[in-house]
Amino acid sequence: HKSALMMAEMAAAQGLASEAKKYRQWAETMRANFHKQHLQPDGSIKPGSQTAYVLALDCGLLTDAAERKKAGAHLAALIRKKSGPKKSGMTTGFLGTKPLLPVLADTGQLELATSILQSRKYPSWGYAVKNGATTIWERWNSYTEEHGFGGSNGKMNAAMNPFSHYAFGAVTEWMFTDLAGIAPAEPGYSKIRLQPHIPTAAPKGAKPISWVRAHHDSPHGRIAIHWQRQQDDSLLYEATVPPNTTAELSLPSHSPWSKPTPKTTTTLLKPGHHRILVR
After folding, report:
1. Buried-most residue among 6, 111, 150, 245 (CB within 10 A)?
2. What percent of the chain has pLDDT over 90?
3. What's phi and psi for 210, nearest 5 deg?
4. In the structure, what pLDDT confidence band is assigned to residue 160 with cuts at 50, 70 and 90?
5. Would you state the pLDDT for residue 4?
6. pLDDT, tens digit, for every residue of 190-248?
7. Can you tell me the distance from the alpha carbon of 213 to that of 215, in angstroms, rounded to the nearest whole number?
8. Looking at the domain covering 39-170, what would its CATH class be?
């Protein structure tokens, strides 16, 4: 479905109207078949794996806002059901992990997404760091505290176990686009979207994320942002917008630490350095 939509977009960009129409029709047929065969009346999906929910949300098979919110809630429930004193609750692999945190944040589950990012339980990025990782492992169970290189059950073939494999490193994309909030609004960053998602909670034993600093070197120059919680619970936001661009900045109208669910205010930023304090 997602591939068909991308093909339709590419065909339209080349002026191939009939090809674009064909691919859009294919995508719509696939979406309708998915709804008929897999989507349940209560908003759940069968089969009910975490990856099934993640891919349905990420690939555009669920487009209605209410449908997406229900699916996100079901996904969050699955993760919480699997979590425990030593378990993060994640069961996704190569296909599901990359879009997991983005779809959680997109469906109103930002705090859960952040707790997974910060988790030190198995499986998680933090679990690997806790066990000495300085690179991204190919497998969540490349090394476990119980069985070492034998995986989660002690029987894994350690001969095929790279400790430098980028797949799970795709989480950094979410850190840039959601936590830092840097994304292109138009191809090539001629127009920039700045919209940080600011978490206010953290998993047990961890401190909430109170600041983020990031930059991206675009074709027009460096885009840089920094947001930080201040001592009085206000939000300090700074951004540098490169020449020959503009940035659409979306920030909470009130500090997220002073009001739990503030509304969003959007401002157009011109090139230069900007410093904004949100109380």
Report:
1. 245
2. 85
3. -110, -5
4. confident
5. 97
6. 999 999 999 998 888 888 999 999 999 999 999 999 999 999 999 999 999 999 999 99
7. 7
8. mainly alpha
Radius of gyration of the chain (CA): 21
- Give Cβ neighbours of residue 207 (< 8 Å, ≥ 6 apart): none
Q: How far apart are CA 202 and CA 165, in angstroms?
A: 28
> Is the pLDDT confidence value at 178 over 90?
yes
DSSP code at position 260: S
CB 168, CB 150: distance < 8 Å:
no
| 167, amino acid identity | A
- Residue 62 CB contacts under 8 Å (≥ 6 apart), including other chains: 39, 56, 68, 71
Dist CA 71 CA 44 (whole Å):
6
Domain boundaries, the chain: 39-170, 181-278
pLDDT tens, position by position, 241-276: 999 999 999 999 999 998 777 789 999 999 999 999
Q: How far apart are CA 173 and CA 99, in angstroms?
A: 10
pLDDT of residue 123 exceeding 90, the answer is yes
Hey, what CATH topology would domain 181-278 get?
Maltose phosphorylase, domain 3 (2.60.420)
Structural tokens at position 44: 């759940």
pTM beyond 0.90, yes or no:
yes
- In whole angstroms, give the CA distance from residue 51 to residue 159: 27
Length of the chain, in residues: 279
Surface-to-core class of residue 248, CB atoms within 10 Å of its CB (0-12 exposed, 13-18 middle, 19+ buried):
middle
3-class DSSP assignment, residue 224: strand
